[in-house]
Recover the amino acids of this structure.
């Protein structure tokens, strides 16, 4: 009997040492919850420096339809406070349901708050045990997160679905790589690191016609240092950054053949290698990129390319990649921040050296010398090597 | 006067104790005990030229009249060999020497034995002053013919099923196991019912200590009547507090024989169309003999499927309760939205919905069992489909809960043994109730309780979770695998058979 009582006490003991001790209070029905899917965070522009939180959740359709994404009605709630917690608490007082952040998958940060600093909000999300650490962070370029979220409500596609789709499409072509909350947190721990956070913006001009229903575009990175937004890496610079980060798995380039016909090349293999040496007190950075591209489309009248044709295309491809790399290197130099993570590479490979450099890295980094070595190979995967004649239909 | 206390009449003692010991089986003594019954038949005759009075006593409907007329009455009245008999002893001697062409005759010197023979469908020849009687086992009562199994349908196995007659059942077993090592030992249980129970085992396979233990437990049963199987089940169960069965009941002779071949002890009970196999461990309830009728890969698939179904049936409702009411962040967002959408407008809490539905499932099952087959199916359809659909449409229940409860209930029906399925359903309730209180923590604690309870359970000294917790690796065969027949050379180690290899002949163990 004593053994049984001891076993029972042993089983009950964890209750006192875990969150489960609150099980009486943690019971809540799904129907009483407001499942927040995205949070918009802004800094008030009235000088109070208060945080404005905008939450968007999906309002389910008819009960029992079994389709959570059926009716795309969205509920937007707004709260305001001196801290993020206070803003969320104030939001709770205006809704009949309990705000539940366990299903939040996106954080959208207004540009003003991003420039002010993300450290405080990232700290909140990392500490909160119910919030997923892999939620993606996105900056609303030239806008507030609140406006961005509100503008998405009338559209047929729910905001988070649209963002997920955009991220999926961009990741497939290695244009934008998502930045997770936990990655930003880890990066903030290293003072010399920067954070490349994807940004979204509204399409304007003639581009709007491409996506009338939901005219937002995910097209580059916002570069933050110490959690503060410095500027943006646009399309080609973003790809250049991805090359150096080794995140390019597939991408498309357009070149011309010797007859000046347009030819599309798809990256089928790539390997990036960045090595750093300190020569004459200056970092000497070698970027070696090995690329294999496959010819996927040509508007020439024939498809039989000679090795000379392919070499010419490879040269153009090398030029384009180097141009993208140089663009991001140039921005990095201009801003004086280590976007490429050179400091982190030195710290990983030569920790003692890094100890001596880290204190004045901001002065050392601009002196970096970059050597680019891009090797490209173009393969013609076209199966029909027959030269078309006039009789060919 | 109406309220006057009357002394309770003194009733005779138990027949086991009274009628017999020391009393001769005379006509008067037999009549004194049985003569008040309306089906009591006493045919008085005189035998031989000496006109020796005798009586043939039996119960109407229990004996075959034709057998009695042809093989008893005719010799007694017409047989010339009885002409020289001058007293009852000489008549009995002549009958025993073959004057009556009857195989099953017994000479009884005790009234108790004579009465017992009559109870079991015999006729007894008594004399007014004789010290002995002769019984003729001329059973003629009606029994059900051997038919197909109703509770254990098969596809590629024998269709025969046990019936209520124990001798028919023993013959079914003996026909399948034509070995001299098959031993069947009878015993009578029940002070009033005097039910015949047969213990069957293979003397060259089954551990003799196991047989003795089963016999001892059955002999210890002291009850008025063994008319339901519960007495046997409780007697052969080690720990009655745990609902998981330590025996397997079956109505299939082939399954019974396979159990005997493994080294188990079989129990047949007169009047019940089922037989028992004991001891049984946890993994036995996932092994259907019909697995061996299929290709071993498919047989393995079926076994693995049963384990999965067991697990799903056990934890699915509790998990659903936990994650929808305590750990909502564990649910993928599309599923969370679907559940939320389904719960909108439903007045009952999800936990209560689930418990009500599980309970409704039990009610429907019981209703289906108790009612005639045709009506039972109608009740299932009305209960399951019509009321279920109406409850969802009327927003009394949310469809998600209905789906989860239905899956759990259906999964429990895939178990090969009803007792095991019952135990599973009880633990499912316990887990669901624990989940209602403390979410996943409660569910895990209840699951651990179940596991601890199973770990501590022993059946005739055999750990219930054998061979999972076997001390030696070689005694731990993978229970979920139905090995090819060429690899099935050993009997289950936990039954501690003296003859562990199936393919090794053992001449020295002849009975």
């Amino acid at each position: 009997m004593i053994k049984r009582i001891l076993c029972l006490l042993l089983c009950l003991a964890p209750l006192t040492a875990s969150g489960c001790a609150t099980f009486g209070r943690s019971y809540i029905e799904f129907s009483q919850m407001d499942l927040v899917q995205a949070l918009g965070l802004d800094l008030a522009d009235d000088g109070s420096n208060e945080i404005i939180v905008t939450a968007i959740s999906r309002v389910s359709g008819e009960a029992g339809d079994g389709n959570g994404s059926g009716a795309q009605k969205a509920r937007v709630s707004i709260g305001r406070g001196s801290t993020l917690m206070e803003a969320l608490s104030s939001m709770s007082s205006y809704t009949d349901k309990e705000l539940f952040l366990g299903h939040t998958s996106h954080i959208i940060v207004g540009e003003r708050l991003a420039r002010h600093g993300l450290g405080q909000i990232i700290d909140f999300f990392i500490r909160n045990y119910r919030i997923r650490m892999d939620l993606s962070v996105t900056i609303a370029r030239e806008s507030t997160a609140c406006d961005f979220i509100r503008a998405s409500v009338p559209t047929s596609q729910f905001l988070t679905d649209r963002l997920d789709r955009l991220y999926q499409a961009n990741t497939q072509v290695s244009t934008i790589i998502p930045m997770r909350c936990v990655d930003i947190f880890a990066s903030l721990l290293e003072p010399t690191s920067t954070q490349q956070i994807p940004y979204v913006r509204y399409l304007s001009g003639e581009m709007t016609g491409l996506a009338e229903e939901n005219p937002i575009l995910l097209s580059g990175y916002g570069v933050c240092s110490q959690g503060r937004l410095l500027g943006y890496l646009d399309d080609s610079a973003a790809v250049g950054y991805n090359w150096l980060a080794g995140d390019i798995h597939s991408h498309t380039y357009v070149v011309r053949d010797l007859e000046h016909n347009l030819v599309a090349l798809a990256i089928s293999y790539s390997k990036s290698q960045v090595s750093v040496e300190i020569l004459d007190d200056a970092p000497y950075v070698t970027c070696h990129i090995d690329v294999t591209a496959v010819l996927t489309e040509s508007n020439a009248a024939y498809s039989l390319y000679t090795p000379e044709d392919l070499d010419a295309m490879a040269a153009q491809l090398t030029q384009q990649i180097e141009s993208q790399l140089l663009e991001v290197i140039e921005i990095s130099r201009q801003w004086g921040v280590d976007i490429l993570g050179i400091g982190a590479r030195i710290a990983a490979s030569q920790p003692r050296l890094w100890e001596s450099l880290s204190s004045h890295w901001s002065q050392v980094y601009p002196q970096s010398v970059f050597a680019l070595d891009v090797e490209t190979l173009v393969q013609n995967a076209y199966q029909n090597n027959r030269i078309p004649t006039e009789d060919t239909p | 006067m109406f309220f006057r206390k009357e002394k309770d009449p003194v009733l005779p003692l138990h027949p086991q104790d009274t009628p017999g010991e020391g009393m001769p089986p005379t006509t008067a003594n037999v009549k004194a005990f049985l003569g008040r019954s309306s089906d009591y038949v006493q045919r008085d005759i005189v035998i031989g030229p000496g006109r020796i009075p005798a009586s043939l006593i039996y119960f109407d409907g229990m004996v075959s009249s034709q057998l009695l007329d042809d093989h008893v009455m005719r010799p007694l009245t017409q047989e010339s060999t009885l002409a020289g008999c001058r007293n009852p002893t000489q008549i009995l001697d002549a009958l025993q020497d073959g004057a009556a062409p009857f195989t099953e005759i017994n000479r009884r010197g005790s009234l108790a034995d004579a009465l017992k023979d009559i109870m079991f469908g015999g006729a007894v020849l008594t004399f007014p002053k004789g010290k002995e009687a002769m019984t003729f086992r001329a059973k003629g009562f009606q029994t059900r013919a051997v038919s197909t199994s109703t509770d254990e349908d098969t596809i590629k196995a024998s269709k025969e099923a046990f019936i209520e007659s124990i001798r028919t059942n023993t013959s079914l077993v003996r026909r399948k196991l034509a070995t001299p090592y098959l031993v069947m030992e009878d015993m009578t249980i029940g002070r009033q019912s005097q039910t015949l129970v047969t213990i069957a085992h293979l003397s060259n396979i089954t551990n003799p200590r196991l047989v003795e233990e089963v016999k001892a437990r059955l002999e210890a049963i002291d009850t008025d009547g063994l008319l339901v199987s519960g007495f046997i089940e409780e007697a052969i169960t080690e720990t009655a507090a745990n609902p998981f069965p330590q025996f397997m009941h079956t109505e299939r002779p082939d399954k019974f024989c396979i159990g005997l071949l493994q080294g188990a002890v079989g129990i047949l009970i007169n009047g019940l169309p089922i037989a028992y196999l004991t001891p049984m461990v946890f993994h036995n309830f996932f092994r259907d003999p019909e697995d061996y009728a299929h290709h071993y890969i498919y047989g393995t698939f079926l076994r693995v499927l049963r384990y999965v179904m067991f697990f799903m049936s056990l934890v699915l409702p509790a998990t659903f309760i936990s994650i929808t009411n305590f750990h909502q962040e564990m649910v993928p967002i599309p599923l969370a939205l679907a559940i939320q959408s389904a719960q909108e407008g439903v007045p009952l809490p999800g936990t209560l919905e689930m418990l009500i539905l599980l309970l409704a499932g039990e009610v429907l099952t019981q209703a289906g069992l108790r009612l005639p087959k045709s009506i039972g199916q109608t009740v299932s359809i009305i209960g399951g489909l019509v009321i279920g659909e109406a409850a969802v449409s009327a927003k009394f229940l949310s469809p998600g809960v209905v789906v989860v409860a239905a899956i759990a209930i259906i999964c429990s029906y895939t178990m090969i043994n009803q007792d095991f399925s019952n135990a599973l359903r009880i633990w499912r309730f316990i887990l669901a109730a624990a989940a209602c209180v403390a979410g996943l923590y409660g569910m895990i604690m209840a699951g651990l309780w179940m596991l601890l309870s199973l770990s501590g359970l022993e059946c005739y000294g055999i750990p219930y979770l054998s061979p999972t917790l076997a001390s030696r690796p070689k005694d731990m065969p993978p229970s979920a695998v139905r090995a090819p027949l060429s690899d099935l050379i050993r009997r289950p180690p936990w039954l501690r058979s003296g003859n562990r290899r199936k393919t090794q002949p053992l001449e020295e163990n002849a009975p």
